[in-house]
Task: structure prediction
Amino acid sequence: MAPRWPPPSSSPWWGSRSPTRSTADRPAPATTTPPRTAQARPSPNQEHAMSPYTLQTAEPDTAEAVIAGMRDRIDLLDTELLQLLERRQALSEAVQEARIAAGGRRTELGRENAVVARYADRLGRPGGRMAVAVLEFCRGSLARPGGAPR
Result:
C-alpha cells in the first residue's frame, strides 16, 4: 500500500492537534490577503533558491544553469559535512582514549542514546538512523586493530 501524502494531521512527524485546544483558542485567519505586486515574483535571473515559479518560467538553459549552481552548493555542503564528521571523529577518539585511560569503557551508551534521540527529534526516523551511522563511524580505530576501516 502506498503511503498517503500529505500524511494525516495525527501523524507524529507532522504534529497533531491537541485535544484540549479548541478552535476558539486559535487566532482567526486573516480575511484579506495583501495584493500581489509585480515585485512579488522573483526574476529567474536573480540569485535565490529554486522555486516552482523559476522552474516554470526559466528558459531551459537558465534552468539547467540554476540547477547546476545549486548542485555546486550541495557539493560544497557535502564537503563541509565530511570535514565536520572528520572533526567529530577526532574528538570522539580523544574522549574514548581519556575514558579508557581513566579505567572506563570506550563508549557510554546513555550518551549515544541521547545523541540518537536528538537527531531523531530534529530529523525524524531517518535522523535516528543517521545518528547511529555517525556514532559507528566516530567509534573509530580504537575498536579495530591497526586502525583499519571496516
